[in-house]
């Protein structure tokens, strides 16, 4: 398991992209909007040397990112860890008593499968587990 990316909740994604690219020297590698219920977020992926930042701007009042910003403010939203096989890892973790927010399971437009663990297991920190099935083929 390795850190895949850090998700950061922001209010103005264009300003955040400007900061991470022009000030910190990162490269914008993906940008898309997910209007799926339970996501409703503009997403921008910034690569910096050996790390990846995922900027998240809510697109609706019902977005989980909007709820997060209202409750905790802007900043680190989640830490994402890449696993070899997401479905096997979910089974393994569940056999040890860990739970997941099942409605968060999805595949993003770039082929990354992901799910969020129930934050009760991590002292409130949102943890995403993900894999890239197409990379294995």
TrEMBL record:
EC number(s) given by UniProt: 5.1.99.1
Pfam families with a match to the protein in the record: Glyoxalase_4
Domain of life: Bacteria
Residues annotated as domain VOC: 2-132
Signal sequence extent: none
Alphabetically ordered keywords of this record: Isomerase, Metal-binding
InterPro entries cross-referenced by the UniProt entry: Glyas_Bleomycin-R_OHBP_Dase, MeMalonyl-CoA_epimerase, MMCE/EMCE_epimerase, VOC_core
Annotated SUPFAM superfamilies: Glyoxalase/Bleomycin resistance protein/Dihydroxybiphenyl dioxygenase
Alphabetized GO MF terms: methylmalonyl-CoA epimerase activity
Family: Belongs to the methylmalonyl-CoA epimerase family.
Protein name: Methylmalonyl-CoA/ethylmalonyl-CoA epimerase
Organism: Fictibacillus barbaricus
